[in-house]
Amino acid sequence: MRAKLSLIFLLCAAIHVTPNDAQTAPVAPLSADLARYYFESPEAEIAARSDLESALKRLGNFRGQINTGQRLLGALQSYEEVLTLYRRHETYLRLRCSQNRKDPACAANSKLGSTVNAATAFLTPEILSVPEAQLRRFEAADPGLKPYQFTLEDIRRDAPHSLPGNEEAFLDRLQPEIADWQYDLYEQILAGISFGTVQTSAGPLDVIHQRNLLVSHADPRVREEAFHRRFEGFAGRRDLFAFTLIHTVQAQSALAELHHYADAPARKYASLHLDPEQARALLTAMAQHGDVVKRFEKIRADEYQRANHAQLQPWDLAAPQNNFDLPVTPLTDAPGIFHEAFSGLGAEYQEAFDALLNPRNGRADVLPGGAPNRYTGGFSTGFAGSTSMLFIGRYDGTFKDLSVIAHEGGHATHRGFMSANGVKPLYANGPNFLFESFAVFNELVLADYLADHAPDPRLRHYYLEQWMRIKGLDAFYGAEDALLEQQIYEGVSTGDIRSPDDLDKLTLQVDSQFSTFPATTSELRNRWATLSLMYEDPLYNINYVYGGLLALKYYQLYAADHDHFLQRYIAFLKNGFDAPPAVLLQQYLNINLFDDSLLKDDLVLLNRRLDQLELGPAPGTPK
Ligand SMILES: [Zn+2]
Predict the structure, then answer these.
(1) Cys bridge to 330: 26, 58, 409, 452, which one at CB 3.0-4.6 A?
(2) What is the per-residue pLDDT across 497-545, written as a single tens digit (0 to 9) for each?
(3) 20: closest CA among 328, 460, 463?
């Protein structure tokens, strides 16, 4: 696996949710000042690429020469120099490309990425080929290697799984033909389906592109038709989707076997520093506790029954409440809300988040209503030597939009903390689930703040429900997908899964542990076809499980002993990833990542919050 010294970094893209048409978009945008923090102009960026080229050349001089401790150190330092320069260009180009998808920056960015990737690809296999005893001698002879100890250990973890000679490079070259074509095919199949439109009182709405409007439409008939049409569309190509999924699984399984792993899930889990056996046991345990999700479904069903005198159906989960307008927050009010919401995270965190959203600083690019050709999702940037920034493609002032700012702004703040603390470029990225846990924790804090300060009981209840639906149950929704995916890998390898019918059967069996709907709604058995992440980024789902469980754990520690937790939490954020996640979690927060108590404690919290929801909006006087 070539992931160790890799340019692939977190691409945490938030999916945008469009609000109801009735809501009006707030207007004043926040704009990123790229000239101030990155390059004066597009021409200046192009001219500055010569520095990056020189750095790549210096790194290239170490090719085939890593035969002393000093040269190993030189190669690693040179690589960090490349990373630092490259990320500056990459961030600048990515931000420009996101502002306008037709900007030449888009093509320039992907070209620059491939160039840098190709020029640095020799490093990991060369370090892996140094015999263990020789590496020990290098380390003893050159104390400068000490800070790189974890990087080297991390690379060496792969030693039993690496292939001899050129085989690894050969496989890398064939990667697109072995494992990347399946997602291209998935997208092609999807693009060929005409899902159609649903007629509404305000005209037709597109089943896919206007799905957010359809699932939250006030008319239950519209929601139902949209639901059926979407699943009918997928079902119409289920043979092709099954072909694509089974070939995804077979490719990943073959690669895992070739690299001496028990199977593809074990390979993926190990790459995240997880214990494959423990991860499997955790997913099984979470399925056994899947009734916590069903309990939330039941609360929603009771509420729906009371309000509409009708039974809640799967297409009603995002139905709007009667006579209840959701709040719309103008962007100009957002910085003030976050200032208050994150006061609980301590002055240092609060100031950092304020600085990110301060319009005078030009570090956020948030556009009310979005724009044609503008990327609609959200992400953050920031690295050693590059100021952290926040990009939100489209802001409509919904709660979800604020939650996305809390999340992505959390990544930006975390990156800013690491840079200010001088974290080495090689330690600025870590396992995705750990990175995500910090961002999800912010979302929990925001929803709670809004609930506590809601002007009336129904609004308070709404925010408490969002706390649960958007993030509280994230780990369980993740576990449902991760368990389904893991069992598809098992079924394909035993030969039990060979057809769409087999996939339907397994989906029903797994999903029924987390929801009551699959048993009564036959279309839901086709859910395996709709889970694009399984095709796009195989086995990524496990990150939502650990990330979600950790965020809930931070929340408990935060609520129980605020000051003690905060001090350690901020130190953890500043530290970077210079040890395995389980070691860092133990060291900073005394959390045992692999102990049963993580899930048990989270379940206590979730059930306590569900008790609160079950009571419904408090009838008393508004706060
Ligand atoms: Zn994220």
Answers:
(1) 26
(2) 999 999 999 999 999 999 999 999 999 999 999 999 999 999 999 999 9
(3) 328
